[in-house]
Structures are given as C-alpha cells and as structure tokens.
Amino acid sequence: MQMDTPQHTPLLSKEQIRALPAFQNLSTDRILVIQTLEQCKAIQAELSSIQVFGFDTESKPTFKVGEKSTGPHLIQLATPNKAYLFQVSPEVLDFLKPILENEQQLKVGFGLKNDAHIFRAKDIQPNAMIDLSKSFASFGYRSQVGIQTAIALLFQRYFAKSKKVSTSNWSVKNLSPQQINYAAADAYAALLCFEQLYQQQLLTTQLLQQIRRILEGSADKA
Question: Which of 20, 31, 116, 174 is the most buried (most CB within 10 A)?
Fold first, then answer.
C-alpha cells in the first residue's frame, strides 16, 4: 500500500479525518478465518517465518456492572498480504501461545495493555508486544493516539470505525462479513502504521532499541 506520507501534520479534527479518502483494507480473499486446530496446523510453517505481525483482539462486550469478560474471543494477526482471524477455543489458544510468547516475533498494535493483562490471566506471558499508541509526539500528540487518528496522520486516509460492529458479539460461531472486515482491518492497519513509523524513525528511542534487538535476534537465529 504505497501512499504519500507527510512528515508533519497539524492536529486533526474529527471532521478533517472523516473528509479524507477511505482506507483500503485487505481484500476478502486475503482474510483467513480460522476455527479449528487443523486449520492452525496448516499455516504453522507460514506463521513461524513471520517477523512482525499486526495484532489485535476482540471480545464479546460486557454490559452489566461486575460482569467479567470471557474473552478474547478473536485474535487477529496480520502481515502485509494477509490477515489471520483466530476464533478462540482452548486448542486454538494453545496453538497461539508460542507465537504470543515468542521474543523474536513482534506483535504490534494499539492499546495493548489490556490484551497483555487478559493473556496473563490465561497463563500466557506475552512477549515482544509493541504498543504504538504513544508514538505520535512528532505530530504534536502527547497523549495516546488511536488507530483512526494514526492512519489519518501517516497515510491521509479515513479509517472508519463502526461502534455497532465493535460492540457486537465476537463469540458467535459464524462471524458476519462486517465483523470479519473490521477485525482484519484493525490488525492490518496496525502493521502499516508500525512499518511507517519504523521506516521514518518516528518511534521513541526506547522502542526502536527494543525492536532492533528483537529483529537482530531473530535474524541471528535464521
């Protein structure tokens, strides 16, 4: 996805963001919905060769006070050419555990603090998870930035976010086309943002050092 990338953009209003051309997600034939361990094993070698994943999760929302989430119900991994949507079951989560814990495979996304907490509660110790939400100081943003603003800043595109879809039931057996598109876009867009921030050296020094150590370590093992 080649786009003109501004070096510096003033703070954008919601109206300015909505007026931008639409973000282009992966086509449906490049989005894999994975429900079984057999499907996982079929792509195991493919996944093991990937250094950097765009990453996100979705969970069935909770609406009652004190209600505990049973998520994640969907785990998304994305490459520049493909998105993998894993519908979570005990077997699928066991399959993903080595990837989530792998210190040599980057998982990049936005707002990952809660994801890490959820995984630890399921006896998964996530490693090499890079949260990009505080990486936009060079654009004038001192606080956390969401993926919609990030795409607008880096690519001058409007990344639509449907509240209806985001708060839908992610634990259903058959995801809707809207859910599939939404989930894939979140992970894919996160990867594009990471690549752009990394190439332009807009990440913090601390994050850059961490990422280089991981990438160099995985290159040494190759």
Answer: 31
Alpha carbons 217 and 222: distance in angstroms, whole number: 9
CATH superfamily for 19-59+70-215 is Ribonuclease H-like superfamily/Ribonuclease H (3.30.420.10)
Q: Are 78 and 84 in contact (CB under 8 A)?
A: yes
Tell me the pLDDT of the chain averaged across its residues.
91
Provide φ and ψ at 140, rounded to 5°: 95, 5
Q: How many CB atoms lie within 10 A of CB 220?
A: 8
**Cα-based distances in Å from 106 to 134, 162, 204:** 17, 27, 16
Q: Per residue in 6-64, pLDDT tens?
A: 445 458 999 999 999 999 999 999 999 999 999 999 999 999 999 999 999 999 887 67
Q: What is the signed CA dihedral for 153, 157, 158, 159, rounded to 10 degrees?
A: -80
